[in-house]
Amino acid sequence: MRRVRPAGARAARRAAEFGCESWTHDTSALYSRRMLAGSFDKHDDRPVEDKIVLLRDATWADYQRHLEMRGDHSAPRFAYLEGVLEIMSPSFTHESIKSLIGSLVEVWCLEKGVEFTTCGSWTIEQKEQRRGVEPDECYVFGDVTDPQRPDLAIEVVWTSGGLDKLEIYRKLEVREVWFWRRGQLTVHSLRGESYVQVSTSAVLPGI
Questions:
Q1: Is the pTM of this model over 0.85?
Q2: Terminal alpha carbon distance of the chain
Q3: Considering the chain, what percentage of its residues have pLDDT values greater than 90?
Q4: For 136-179, how does the pLDDT look when each residue is reduced to its tens digit (9 = 90+)?
């Protein structure tokens, strides 16, 4: 995990790298739409590039065994939901998009003075709930010394056919999940025991 405490000069430099003299809400929204949409809005997300395998009747021990065998490598990524194990090897494009979204989040936080910790594909799991997941990217906001879960998880859907990630995140009580699919970014905020799709972020007000 990498914790970042914003500094004004550094934020300005990072914003300049992305072609923005001032990273205002309107500027970031416009730039985000341009960068995240690009030529991807017509992308056919049927299984072609990401390699996704679903193993049914998998036990919690099976899930843990796969995590242990992979070790500290970043791929493949695993998700587990009530007896079904997803194994996903992300494509180059998948990883590029998730890194771009992460960069946009970090530049916005630096400009707005929001302290954040970058947690990457942190393995979030609860045996009692029979759920586990590794986001494409995730963040903890504020000065938190021992976080139990991220405040924000980011998922890129470049190839369809995987598990219902929102259902996994719901019982893991992740406050907000962003999904990128076909050039569009949707925000899902946890309200009680279910997610609601919203137009603006609750964990990063102003986005």
A1: no
A2: 23
A3: 63
A4: 999 999 988 899 999 999 999 887 778 999 999 999 999 999 99
Q: CB–CB of 138/150 below 8 Å? A: yes
User: What crossing angle do the helices spanning 8-17 and 92-112 adopt, rounded to 10°?
Assistant: 140
Kindly report the three-state secondary structure assignment for every residue of 28-74: HHHHHHHHHHCCCCCCCCCCCCCEEEEECCCCHHHHHHHHHHHCCCC
127-116-19 Cα angle (round to 5): 130
Instruction: Give the pLDDT of residue 25.
Output: 45
Q: What is the mean pLDDT of residues 74-99?
A: 93
